[in-house]
Known about the structure:
The chain is mostly helical. It has 2 domains: 2-85, Rna Polymerase Sigma Factor, Chain: A, CATH 1.10.1740.10; 111-189, Winged helix-like DNA-binding domain superfamily/Winged helix DNA-binding domain (Arc Repressor Mutant, subunit A). Helix content is 81%, strand content 0%. Mean pLDDT is 82; it is low at 107-119.
Amino acid sequence: MKNITKQIETELLVMRCQDGEAEAFRELVNLWQTRLSRFAYRLTGNQEASADITQDCWMAAVRGIRKLNDPALFRAWLFRVAANKCADWIRREQKSRKTFEELSAEQEAQPLDLTAPNNSNEEDDVTQLRRALRKLPREQRTILNMRYLEGIKTEQIATLLGIPQGTVKSRLYHARNALRELIQVSNSKN
């Protein structure tokens, strides 16, 4: 019953917003702000980014609410905007991480200082994992990063990428197998 009431309230507020009522928009923000912010945080795992994304979503809502033909679709529309903005943020983060990884690779390519103490096996494992990750195709690296580095859940990755959850699981399976094979090949060479 509570969901139906919230849905009806949302639809009425959307219609009032479409008529240009500023107060209705404030009420709409109050009604959905917390859930939208939590959604953005769950997708990004970053409090600051989720706050920025939430604000961007409301700016998009101000610009696009009059174009929304069916007020009953407001929630889905708003959360789709949020998912797209989160995906953009994640892509930017991955691009900056890629740059960081490239810089790290350059440092790794430097000649070894034989006077330095030996690295532990754990450090060797991390280096080996990084090298193997860099060898994976971008799509596989991306999905592994989203799931294991960003901690984004399978259903959220599906939403972000606009694909079914089963496809996400399948891609994760193949990416993990490819990573495992790269590590095994690397180990057999050593």
